[in-house]
């Protein structure tokens, strides 16, 4: 049996092949309460001004600014309080010369008033108060439409829904939100050496750690995941399982079996189901055997069985594809420059990705490998929030060098409060 020859392509080219596929972005509606993490499928247009009326940003008194002309420490001007409103109430009283309405934050400014005097700027007595400075037209007033006017596009199609987006949607009365459907994902760990998490260890066997990791990565997008049983290295049953997974889910992620070993059946499975293999070798370490195929509008991600390679494959190829299916405008990983904090002298024949801990310090970003970093490593993934990316054809990166870093985790927390 001769070993199949594979030609490596640059990672960037591999990602672009994934992203060039024709996938259908399907629109649906979800409840506002369930919309976090989805991508908007339509522009959201302001149906009214925000604020909707001139309002008071403070607790104080609404006055006519013209009545405050000439006020000073020596010449305090007195106002008579003729009404009292809280937020949500509207005063219908006519405000005459040197009259005022006691008004709370968020309340609508009475029609005749055009300025607000804060409590702290007054000396109060029972039904009157005095001020010691003149107020300008619209001083201390939040103006109708100062944030957004009717017809503005306030949220854009393709935008990820975050808590702030939800606040805007709530403002405009969206109980249902137009979003793109999220893909459902089948996760299949392949390998006759694999045991389920609950199994006792046996000679020559290891527990399936990739399956639960990939499921968790997918769930961090809020995707619905079908976690399949461990699949033995057996061609016939593997073909059946992959076919079944394709019929029940929008995409299929397998781990293991994409290499050129005697029991690596993924290449044959792709043939058997007539999938178009987009690439089966990427110029990267780890995970050069990572394979992505496409069949009838569905992705099949063949991630390496080596845990670090598997994780890297998900970050590089699955995440952008999921974003694309979800109709997102921003699909790609965030990249930063950081100062390498320890030597890394290994050669990099291909682009190397190193699980790493990036830290944003007041002086800029720093990064260190997050532990033992071979492709089979698992612990370093747990301590990583990033991957260092070293270009192919280089070696000898030293502490102090600036390197490219791909951020993999958005929730970064510090042990110390740095405020
Ligand atoms: P493979 O990609 O099938 O050649 O596997 C590469 C290496 O990853 C082997 O050492 C496997 O035992 C290991 N491996 C494969 N699948 C998993 C998995 N689901 N969890 C942990 N390690 C795995
Ligand atoms: Mg295997």
Automatic annotation (TrEMBL):
Pfam families reported for this sequence: MoCF_biosynth (PF00994), MoeA_C (PF03454), MoeA_N (PF03453)
Keyword presence, Magnesium: yes
Cofactor(s), names only, from the UniProt record: Mg(2+)
Keyword Plastid: no
Family: Belongs to the MoeA family.
Keywords: Magnesium, Metal-binding, Molybdenum, Molybdenum cofactor biosynthesis, Transferase
Domain MoaB/Mog: 186-324
Pathways involved: Cofactor biosynthesis; molybdopterin biosynthesis
Function: Catalyzes the insertion of molybdate into adenylated molybdopterin with the concomitant release of AMP.
SUPFAM superfamilies the record matches: MoeA C-terminal domain-like, MoeA N-terminal region -like, Molybdenum cofactor biosynthesis proteins
Identification of the protein by name: Molybdopterin molybdenumtransferase
Organism: Staphylococcus caprae
Catalytic activity: adenylyl-molybdopterin + molybdate = Mo-molybdopterin + AMP + H(+)
Signal peptide: none
Gene: moeA
E.C. code: 2.10.1.1
Transmembrane region(s): none
């Amino acid at each position: 049996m001769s070993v199949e020859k594979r030609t490596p392509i640059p990672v960037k080219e591999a990602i672009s092949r994934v992203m060039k596929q024709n996938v259908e972005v399907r629109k649906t509606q979800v409840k506002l309460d369930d919309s976090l993490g989805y991508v908007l499928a339509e522009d959201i247009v302001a149906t009214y001004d925000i604020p909707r009326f001139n309002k008071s940003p403070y607790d104080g008194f609404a006055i006519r600014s013209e009545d405050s002309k000439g006020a000073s420490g020596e010449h305090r001007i007195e106002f008579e309080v003729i009404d009292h409103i809280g937020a949500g109430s509207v005063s219908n009283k006519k405000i005459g010369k040197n009259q005022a309405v006691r008004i709370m934050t968020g309340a609508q400014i009475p029609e005749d008033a055009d300025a607000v005097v804060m409590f702290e700027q007054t000396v109060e007595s029972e039904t009157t108060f005095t001020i010691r400075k003149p107020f300008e037209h619209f001083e201390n007033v939040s103006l109708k439409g100062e944030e957004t006017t009717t017809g503005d596009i306030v949220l854009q199609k393709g935008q990820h829904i975050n808590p702030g987006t939800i606040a805007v949607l709530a403002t405009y009365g969206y109980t249902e939100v137009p979003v793109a459907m999220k893909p459902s994902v089948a996760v299949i760990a392949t390998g006759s050496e694999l045991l389920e998490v609950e199994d006792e260890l046996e000679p020559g066997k290891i527990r399936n750690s990739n399956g639960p990791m990939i499921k968790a990565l997918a769930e961090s997008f809020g995707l619905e995941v079908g976690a399949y049983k461990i699949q033995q290295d057996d061609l016939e049953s593997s073909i059946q399982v992959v076919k079944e997974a394709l019929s029940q889910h929008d995409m299929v992620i397998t781990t293991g079996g994409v290499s050129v070993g005697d029991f690596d059946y993924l290449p044959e499975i792709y043939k058997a189901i007539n999938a178009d293999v987009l690439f089966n070798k990427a110029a990267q370490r780890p995970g050069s055997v990572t394979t992505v195929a496409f069949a009838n509008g569905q992705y099949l991600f063949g991630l390496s069985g080596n845990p670090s390679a598997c994780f890297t494959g998900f970050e590089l190829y699955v995440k952008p594809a999921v974003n694309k299916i979800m109709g997102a405008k921003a699909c790609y990983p965030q990249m930063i420059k950081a100062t390498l904090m320890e030597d890394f002298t290994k050669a990099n024949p291909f682009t190397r990705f190193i699980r790493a801990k990036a830290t944003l310090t007041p002086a800029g970003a720093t990064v260190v490998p997050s532990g033992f970093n071979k492709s089979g490593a698992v612990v370093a993934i747990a301590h990583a929030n990033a991957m260092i990316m070293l270009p192919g054809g280089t070696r000898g990166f030293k502490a102090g060098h600036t390197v490219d870093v791909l951020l993999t985790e958005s929730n970064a927390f510090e042990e110390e409060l740095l405020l």
